[in-house]
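In this section we walk through a basic example: taking a raw amino acid sequence and producing a predicted 3D structure, encoded as C-alpha cells. The instruction is simple. Fold the sequence below.
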Amino acid sequence: MVKTRAGRRFFYNVFSYFYDFFIQIHSGHHRNETRRFLVDSSRISDARKSRVLDVCCGTGSVILAFSERYPNIQAIGYDFSSGMLHRAKEKDVNHKVMLVNGDASCLSFAANCFDLVCCSHALYELKDHMRTKALQEMRRVVKPEGQIMIMEHEVPKKFAIKIMFYIRLILMGPADSREFVKQGLSPFKEIFTEVTLSHTPSGKSKLIICRKI
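The resulting C-alpha cell sequence is shown next.
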C-alpha cells in the first residue's frame, strides 16, 4: 500500500508538468466552463468569514477561481502531490490561496470548520475504499450548514474525446474508476443526507451538491 501511494505520488508529480495542457486538450473551448459553473453554483453568503477547501486541488485552477470571485474568503488547496501544489503556487501570483500537502482520506483539519468543500474531477482516480474515506472526511470537516460540491466527468459523446477519456481512466485511475463514473448518485447518498445533481451547459461534467444535515 505504501509503495502504491508512493508510486502514484511520483506519477502525479511528473504529470503536473503536463496536467494543464492535458486538460486544455480534453476540455477544448469548454475548459473554463466547469470552474465557472462550480463557483456560480456555490452559496457563499458572507465571504469575509467563509472558509473554502478544495480537496485534490491539482494545479489550483478551481480554488483560484473561488479566491478571484470571493477575494475575502480563506481559500485552501489540498493535494498529496507536491508537484501539483508547486504548479498551483506558481499560478497564485497574488498569494490568495493557502496550499497544504496531505491525503484526501485523512484531512488534516478539525471537524465542522469549512463553509464549503469542493473536489473537482478527482474522486474517480481514488480506489473504492479511499474514495469512501475521502467523502467521509469531507463530511466531517464541513460545517453542519455547509455544502460539499463534487464535480465529475460525464462520459464524452464524441468518439475521439471518449477514447482519450478512457485512456485516462486506464492510465491514472484504479480498476473501478469506470464503474464509479457510471454509478450516479448512489455513492453520495450512502454518506450524505441531501444530494442534488445538475450538469454544466455543455453536458460534459456533472455537479453533485451534498449536505450532511
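Looking at the output, two observations stand out. The beta strands are 51-55, 74-79, 97-101, 114-120, 142-153, 194-199, 205-211. The chain has one domain: 2-211. In the next section we compare this with other chains.
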